[in-house]
Amino acid sequence: MILKGRIFHFVDDGRKENPENSFEYFEMGGLVVSGKKIVDIGDFNKIIAKYSDHDVIDHKNNLIFPGFIDLHNHFPQVQVISSYGTQLLEWLNKYTFPEEAKFISEDYSKQQAKKFLKLLITNGTTTSVSFCSVHKESVNALFQEASKKNMCMIAGKVMMDRNAPKNLLDTPQSSYEDSQALISKWHKKNRNFYAITPRFAITSSPEQLKLAGKLVENNPSCYIQTHLSENRDEIEYTMSLYPNYRHYLDIYLQNGIVNNRSLLGHSIHLSGDEISIFEQSKAVAVHCPTSNLFLGSGLFPLKELNNSNVRLGISTDVGGGTSYSMLNNLDAAYKIQQFRNFSLNPKFSFYWATLGNAKSLGLENQIGSFKKGTFADIVVLDSLSNMVSKIRMETCESLDEELFVLQTLGGVQSIKSVYIAGNSFL
Ligand code: GUN
Ligand code: ZN
Question: 198 CB less than 6 Å from ligand 1?
Answer without folding.
Answer: no
